[in-house]
Structure to design on (201 residues):
């Protein structure tokens, strides 16, 4: 009963209509909670019962969302390490790895010299990040600096989680959405060019 109450706190959307099973990975030896007949997963109020005991869907612990394939490998590796640190209850280490991820973002855009603060300003000047994202990056840099250089400084799990989420949002914007909108604008410009219009007449 104790475990049932704990699961309901972790996954409030679950109820008596859901069929659950506990499975063990033969490769890693880890246990996972599977939901059978679950038709939709997401936020806690979006877990809906389906029919019977179909193929189980992993519902706990939740999977990390994968970064887009357009994100450079070393950026993905640094960010993945930040996630691992947080899962391992090392929030201060997670904040440091987020800072390292930020350094990698600067490096991938050819900004490698100077302090990280100066590099972020250069990214803004070059149009890689805009005002609000620059503020996020500065906040990430600050907490990363405090975590890396202050032995007495401890990052709370909540702050580390926020740091991870802000870092992920910045990565997605810089390497995914920004590139997509630029490609979209180029296609639109090409489609509306005079030479194309002449061919369509």
């Amino acid at each position: 009963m104790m475990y049932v109450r704990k699961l309901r706190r972790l996954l409030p959307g679950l109820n008596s209509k859901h069929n659950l099973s506990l499975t063990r990975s033969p490769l890693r030896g880890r246990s996972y909670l599977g939901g059978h007949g679950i038709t939709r997963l997401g936020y806690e109020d979006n877990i809906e019962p389906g029919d019977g005991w179909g193929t189980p869907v992993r519902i706990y612990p939740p999977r990390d969302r994968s970064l887009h394939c357009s994100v450079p490998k070393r950026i993905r590796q640094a960010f993945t390490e930040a996630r691992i640190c947080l899962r391992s209850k090392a929030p201060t280490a997670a904040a440091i790895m987020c800072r390292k991820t930020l350094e990698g973002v600067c490096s991938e855009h050819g900004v490698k010299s100077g302090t990280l603060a100066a590099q972020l300003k250069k990214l803004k000047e070059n149009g890689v990040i805009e005002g609000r994202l620059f503020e996020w990056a500065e906040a990430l840099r600050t907490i990363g600096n405090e975590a890396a250089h202050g032995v007495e400084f401890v990052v709370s799990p909540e702050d580390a989680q926020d740091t991870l989420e802000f870092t992920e949002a910045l990565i997605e914007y810089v390497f995914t959405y920004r590139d997509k909108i630029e490609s979209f604008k180029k296609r639109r410009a090409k489609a509306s060019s005079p030479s194309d219009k002449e061919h369509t007449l």
